[in-house]
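User: Can you write out an input/output pair for a complex, sequences first and structure second?

Assistant: Here is one pair. Inputs:
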Amino acid sequence: MIDYILKFASEAAAKTALSSRLKIGEWPLDYCLPGITMWRESQDVAGTDVDGNPTITHTPLTGYFIQASLDRVLPALRDLAAVQVVVDEELARARRPGAIIKSNVSNAILQDLRWSPVFAGRDNPWGTWA
Amino acid sequence: MSRIMSRRLVRQAIASSGGMPGWVQPGALFDEDFFNQRAWPRPFESEMVDTRASTQYVPNASGVWVPVSSGVLPISSAYMEVEPSSTNSIRNSALQGIVAGSPGTMPTNMGVQQQGTLSRTIGAATTLNGLDVFSLRLNGTTSTTFTNIAFETNGAIAAANGQTWVPSLFMATVAGAFTNIGTMTYGAALYDSGVLYIGELSGRTDFKSSLTSSLFRCSVSGATIASTAFMTPYFQLAFSIGVAIDITLLIGMPKNEPNALTSPVRTTGTAATRAANAITLQRTGIGRVVYTFDNDTQQTVSGINTGAQYTIPTNLNRPLIKRMTGYAS
């Protein structure tokens, strides 16, 4: 599967931008995860809860993020300005080169990015790419 | 598995070889008998396509869960499973980070609370019925009135007032006894925005009488309360102080999902979403479909637009379909 991470100003802006490409009225939950949370690991804050257990607090990045996953590279989607990164998740899972199909963020930021939730079955080696 | 697949292919080939077999419902345009692994007039994979973008666990008739990859029809040797999207907010249902031993190390993000003077022995993570499981032995003389097994760190799962949540897990008792253990309940603790405990998810349930040596899926559906900002699913053993207990539990695949119980979702460090099924027939002309479910009840969906390809709804009466038969009207 090819995973596309896109960033928009709002959910409404996302639907407007994607409506002609993904036939979106309501989010198609078979291949879209709308409103995912993205953060940078380097901005995490470590702490403890009232019981003394360790906690990690993420700092969500601003914007409205979605993940779309298709069985092919769709150039019209890949080339949108909103695209942050496009990943061949099977290559990523196999730790094989070429997993990053496109990235509009620097390599340093890409290795620092985390998001949640992911599609079940994904195993992205975030933070380990050279 | 290869024997099962071979049997399926042989039966489908027989079904496809011409004519209408005797098992097919009269008047049907197609008949998908998942329970007996036979299809007419063509194989399952030719009749339907699922665009689901995630792995999905599907049970067979023996309660063994089989992970099915993205885009592959969610069919086990007994059922096709059709469900809405669901997110497991417990980040480590795959039990990564576990270290066997006494006391050993619990899986990452999980913990034993109020253990007191009890001894704890953790077994290695293994697989049973297709699920990731580990064993936890608690034995000794109690010095507290309860011990909790928490499946997340406090403050990790966001929630809000007015929501319905369904914590679930698989559990069995594999050694020891229930002696001196009063209740064995499952549910979730609720916390405010400062991660201070404010109460419990409603519906906390005692599963002691349901637990045997076979894996049982404990699940609770409950509502949050005012000021809820976070929740932590946990299992609790309750007892008196100063009594002897010795029990070994097998624990697997904890899940915490909104709204309703659905199939397990394996997580390996972050929340994960099983995408909704979008299973579409690769034909038009179907006006009515009759579903037979795992409990042998039936549901008929009629008035289908015969000019379009029919997509199986994800809100059928039950998710596990034994048989699906389509008619023109």
